[in-house]
Amino acid sequence: MASVFRSEEMRLSQVFLQVEAAYCCVAELGELGLVQFKDLNANVNSFQRKFVNEVRRCESLERILRFLEDEMQNEILIQMPEKEPETPLPREMITLESTLEKLEGELQEANQNQQALKKSFLELTELKYLLKKTQDFFETETNLADDFFVEDTSGLLELRAIPAFMTGKLGFTAGVIHRERMASFERLLWRVCRGNVYLKFSEMDTLLEDPVTKEEIKKNIFIIFYQGEQLRLKIKKICDGFRATIYPCPEPAAERKEMLASVNVRLEDLITVITQTDSHRQRLLQEAATNWHSWVIKVQKMKAVYHVLNMCNIDVTQQCIIAEIWFPVADTKHIKRALEQGMELSGSSMVPIMTEVETKTDPPTFNRTNKFTAGFQNIVDAYGVSSYREINPIWNTFFNGRYLILLMGVFSIYTGLIYNDCFSKSFNIFGSSWSVQPMFRNGTWNAHVMEKSQYLQLDPAIPGVYSGNPYPFGIDPIWNLASNKLTFLNSYKMKMSVILGIIQMTFGVILSLFNHIYFRRTLNIILQFIPEMIFMLSLFGYLVFMIIFKWCRYDAHTSQKAPSILIHFISMFLFDYDDSNAPLYSHQQEVQTFFVIIALVSVPWMLLIKPFILRAQHQKSQLQSFTIHEDDIEGGHSSTSAQKKTSGAHGTKDGHEEEFNFGDIFVHQAIHTIEYCLGCISNTASYLRLWALSLAHAELSEVLWTMVMNIGLRLRGWGGLIGVFIIFAVFAVLTVAILLIMEGLSAFLHALRLHWVEFQNKFYEGAGSKFSPFSFKHVLEGTEE
């Protein structure tokens, strides 16, 4: 029972560790993953704990590791370690810190140099294209020869054929601007300068890269001609407002040619330097990618160990660390061995000491699982954790995924064989127990049959119609021919669902007995379990008995007990007694009256007796305490142990005696009694959902067969062959979508509700706390998520 029904036995112990060995011992327990540490510093601020500085150092290392991960993203493939590294010793943190800080500094320096170089490369590239476009513009305007940079174009800027007072030289500004800002830039320039400027621009064909964001940018080259200092200042302000970059551009063609050559040389040198910088940065990232996962695991383990140490007390006088741990009793040897390994690893000579602690606190709940049962337990944890050593649901519920599909598939096949229903059609595996041949005489219907009823029926009174041997398993396929098939299945499935529900609920009440026995709750056995069983069995248990008795009692030939119960699981739901009030056995009315009376008696038994007994026990304990106190005053000594014994015998929690309130206890018992009595009725009715789901499923299956598949089977010839192929595809899609997916999910949800509510409320409370051991495996999995 300890492994199937209940949580494992848990123990609370104090562990005394030498300061030098505490880190290694906690690390070994983290590798083991079977110990839950109790926070002994719950009232202490997180920033005032002993190892807060070590935690901050680990968080600083995590920051560096995140920085490295961001740098490696989409550039370097992070390598996974062959095996998980062990927890580093405290002295290794210094080495790890220096390694990561050095790597971070070198990488940041490389990034800064790379950004500066790329920024210079971007500016030189823009200047290069600006010089080319400027020269192209001057050549176009002055119809220069094909020879590039031959004539001096500075005279182009001289004003000619204008009045003497306006004689002067035009100035120009050349620069680069983002392409999406060009339209607004041109409009504002025209309005501010009132049309007294001449703007020429062209798009840069080369895509440039932002040195910071590494995004592609598109820019335009522009040249603005103007006259006067005021226009120059206005143009400069507009360019600054639109974040346009202005480059110096000489007027003479020779100077532009010389500047272009210089820019090309600088670009070639810059490309070489950028390539070397990228290579150095890639080497740094490759080094980080090789060890990154190992570093992350080490830092996470160190941080987890220091978090646990912050939950412990430090005895300054004894130079030891005190921890309180919950652990399964069955793993005591493994835990002691882990502590010894931690002591040996740290080089300490003091053996860790474990002492059991007596406590009234409910231990955490722990159910040992394997790969298969872990999924079942996870669903239970999602709904609520069972209280300590309380009976758990029988393997609790269904596992997500493949096991769920497997179990539902197996059960669907089983119920299909019981109802002999496969896509609304029956299998004739064992041969029908009914035959129509004896009802014929000389090729025509027997006159006796025609006189008896206007309907043609299989009359079991005629010899040979019924073989006397029921169908071995499931429903006889002859029922597919009956006009009252739905009525028969309706009664059959309804009563089967009631029988199943009452049996399961009774089993749930029996499971509560194991809880009462385990916790030694004698009052609950006598004043709760027994009346609950009497109420359940006298009313609903008798109902099940009568259903089965009626199946067994009916016989078509002699109205006596039939040779087999299986045939009456079929026939009794079709053929009923004409007189429904006729008793099925002698003294039936007296027996039923007796069961009703004892069911009514069990209600006040369950409601009234327990609260008054608890009040009497409380008054008795109070009288004993008062007598002991007076004896202590007269004798001049204390009887602390006797007082503790008295108070502990009548319910304490966390060392404090609980206040007894008769009204609260009576109301609680009344609520429990009302819920149980009404719940037995409502829960029994709730199990009828199984009947409704089964009928709905069968009717949908029959509709799909009649309205879809049957149409294709009626077609003849080549057209029928093609039609069957198409119609079967439609039939298969609808069957999967409606019957398997929609109806299957609906059946699963309703069955899950019956399991959680109608069954488990008889014994299961779900009021405990989950066992959360300190485990590096859980820590690392949480980090990945």
From TrEMBL:
Keyword presence, Membrane: yes
Top-level division of the source organism's lineage: Eukaryota
InterPro entries: V-ATPase_116kDa_su, V-type_ATPase_116kDa_su_euka
Residues in coiled coil: 58-127
Membrane topology: Multi-pass membrane protein
GO function terms (MF aspect): ATPase binding; proton-transporting ATPase activity, rotational mechanism
Primary location group: membrane
Residue ranges, annotated region (Disordered): 634-654
GO annotation terms (biological process): ossification; renal tubular secretion; sensory perception of sound; synaptic vesicle lumen acidification; vacuolar acidification
UniProt GO cellular component terms: brush border membrane; endosome; presynapse; vacuolar proton-transporting V-type ATPase, V0 domain
Cellular compartments annotated: Membrane
Keywords of the record: Coiled coil, Hydrogen ion transport, Ion transport, Membrane, Transmembrane, Transmembrane helix, Transport
Signal sequence region: none
A Pfam entry, by short name: V_ATPase_I
Transmembrane segments: 401-419, 498-519, 525-549, 593-613, 717-742
Positions with biased composition (Polar residues): 637-646
Functional description taken from the UniProt entry: Essential component of the vacuolar proton pump (V-ATPase), a multimeric enzyme that catalyzes the translocation of protons across the membranes. Required for assembly and activity of the V-ATPase.
UniProt similarity note: Belongs to the V-ATPase 116 kDa subunit family.
Record protein name field: V-type proton ATPase subunit a
Source lineage: Eukaryota, Metazoa, Chordata, Craniata, Vertebrata
